[in-house]
Design brief:
38% of the residues lie in helices and 26% in strands. The protein has one domain: Ribosomal Protein S8, Chain: A, domain 1 (2-Layer Sandwich). The chain is globular and about 40 Å long. A hairpin with a 3-residue loop joins strand 2 and strand 3 (61-71). Strands 1-3-2 form a three-stranded antiparallel β-sheet. It starts with 6 loop residues before the first helix and ends with a helix. The longest helix has 21 residues, at 73-93. The chain is an alpha+beta fold. The protein has helices at 7-10, 35-45, 73-93, and strands at residues 25-28, 48-57, 61-71.
Length: 95
């Protein structure tokens, strides 16, 4: 039986120690991404949701907490393609 995701599964975890991050990569989720896309990617690729502080330069440089999905390089690259395709389909459905 497939594991059902709960809201607790998507709550970002605090960043872990540097030695545990070796060979892991982050896919930063753009703000405003529909939650069903994030759920699907986490479930399909078994990525770990984490919180990242990232500088955002809009009017002035600002630190923001963004959601990122962490995993091995090949898995993150595959998830990135799915994220791009899903966001593209979502935007085009709004026209």
């Amino acid at each position: 039986m497939a594991k059902k995701l709960t809201i607790e599964d998507l709550k970002p975890k605090k960043e872990t120690e540097e030695e545990q991050l070796e060979d892991l990569y982050d896919l930063v989720i753009p703000p405003g991404t529909p939650s069903y896309i994030i759920y699907d990617i986490v479930e399909e690729f078994e990525l770990e949701p984490v919180e990242r502080k990232i500088s955002v330069n809009i009017i002035e440089c600002d630190q923001r907490d963004l959601l990122a999905l962490r995993g091995k390089l090949e898995v993150v690259q595959a998830a990135e393609k799915v994220l791009y395709d899903e966001l593209n389909a979502w935007v085009n459905s709004k026209e």
